[in-house]
Amino acid sequence: MNRAWELLRGNATLTTGILLFLLISVMAITAPTISPNDPAEMNFEERLSPPSASFPLGTDQFGRCVFSRIVYGARTSLFIAIISTLIVVPAGIVVGMYAGYFSRFDAPLMRLTDILLAFPGIVLAIAIVGVVGPTPAGIILSFSIPGWAKYARLIRGSTLSLKNSGFVEAARALGASDTYILFHHILPNSYGPIIEIATLGLGSKIIAISGLGFLGLGIQPPTPELGAILKDGVVYLQTAPMMALSAGGMIMLFVLATNLIGSELRSIADPRSDTIEL
Amino acid sequence: MMCTIILNRLLQLIPVMVGISLITFAVISLSPGDPAEITLRATLGTESPPKEAVAKLHEEMGLDDPWHVSYLKWTSRVVQGDLGYSYQTKRSTIEEITHALPITFELAFLSMFFSAAVAIPLGITAALRQNGPVDHLCRLTSIISLSSPEFFVAIVFMLLGGVYLGILPVAGTGGIEYFILPALTLSVGLTAITMRIMRTSMIETLEQDYIRTARAKGLSYRKVIWRHALKNALLPVLIYMGTQLGWIFGGAVTIESIFALPGLGRLLVNSVSSMDIMVVQGCMLTFAVIIVLINLGVDLAHLYLDPSIRGQGE
Fold this sequence. Notes:
The complex is a heterodimer of chains A (278) and B (314).
Chain A: H1 2-10, H2 12-29, H3 31-34, H4 66-101, H5 103-118, H6 121-132, H7 136-162, H8 166-173, H9 178-189, H10 191-214, H11 226-235, H12 241-269
Chain B: H1 2-30, H2 35-44, H3 51-60, H4 67-79, H5 93-128, H6 133-147, H7 150-164, H8 177-206, H9 209-217, H10 221-259, H11 264-273, H12 277-305
Helix pairs in contact in B: 1-12, 2-3, 5-6, 5-8, 5-10, 5-12, 6-8, 7-8, 7-10, 8-10, 10-11, 10-12, 11-12
């Protein structure tokens, strides 16, 4: 815990990222409490009106409160992204560890990841959502099916390099079972890269969710969805720019927060490596 | 030696191809729609083909058989080039894809060109003047551009390019000017990371012993950079760009839809929206096969260009 504070105090970027993320998350989670209006309520007399006291970011083409829709949309996106990550990361870790540690599982499991990674993420996501339907569960499924492969590869790599190290040998000599070694020795040494990639992955999932919404293949209207609001907002860019700007801005801030956190975690873990991976 | 490596890689492709076909088959089996009916609508040219003909073709195609039989029949059709027909346009899937694919290729390569043209010089400059203004600016723009969803960037470019320049943002057919904005949009994410990699690679290369030797021999700084450092520093960058070519194809999906470029990505989106399952299957297969082949090509090129990594099997 103290180490965490030390990390934060010395690192403005990391702190900014975390604060930004917390701010947006709190907004998203408390959406029902903080939104001034019902996001589905249409007020045709007030269509496309500019920001005002009762509509902090104005209204959309149906007279719905943009601010309310944005925070509810953020809520849905955050929910889907977090659930997907919670499914995908542990699954990838387990597969990766077993592939790296037990060589007889390695080749077939890696073939499987090759196959899943052969499809661009969005292609599989679109296809699966097409089959199961554009619901939050469907989107979570479409991320989960290919999503674990990246983490599996990563953990396999670090397991491979760790499995022959001194402390593992020592633990084995002391009679530790393979499972114990995997979860108590190998896994804790990989926390760094895992957290970093998971953070960056969260951001890219948010982009993917909005991307699906933008293409009309994601969460369907009238449920508020950031990508869909952005798509509508582009049409009304002249008359009601707040729609597009706030939707796009919200997505960007979310992803900026996760990228700042992930990029700083990477710098901390390996100061020489200067790359940011998606 | 290289031959055995190439052969090895090609053999490893087989299970991957099988897996790709299984996934694609699973997706269209689970989707609504009757391939037999779609085929007859196209080949007979009628809106509602006779029921007996549909039933007969249905049976021939093995659509009601247990899934492994159905899969094998489907695979033999695919391998012979029969990917079915589009429900909407009644053209064959192959025809749709052969029209769409060159556009996506053109988009992808133009994007890579833009990325390289921007990232490489900037990365080198950032490396040579570390922590200078260029370096910090690059880092900042990297993070911002990586946080921007591609559709947002697309909108910004559309506004800038469409309003202030004569470059048309919409409508795909035509000369290269229709590809400029989409390619720029697509190149943003790649440029950001490539720039950092170029920088890191250049820094690491300049710290090598042979560079110090060259300087000790009396070569001027400029000669050292151009003749020795650059060649070696570029390799990881090129390999990285090669591996990201697959990612670019994925990004093309959204970009083509926004800019209405009739490429493979837009074909996929439209066919999923309208549940045109045979086109969906064609797109999925095409995307996957392209990416597998690209990755293979990059892998082999890497092995060829950097003999030091040979002998590192799986």
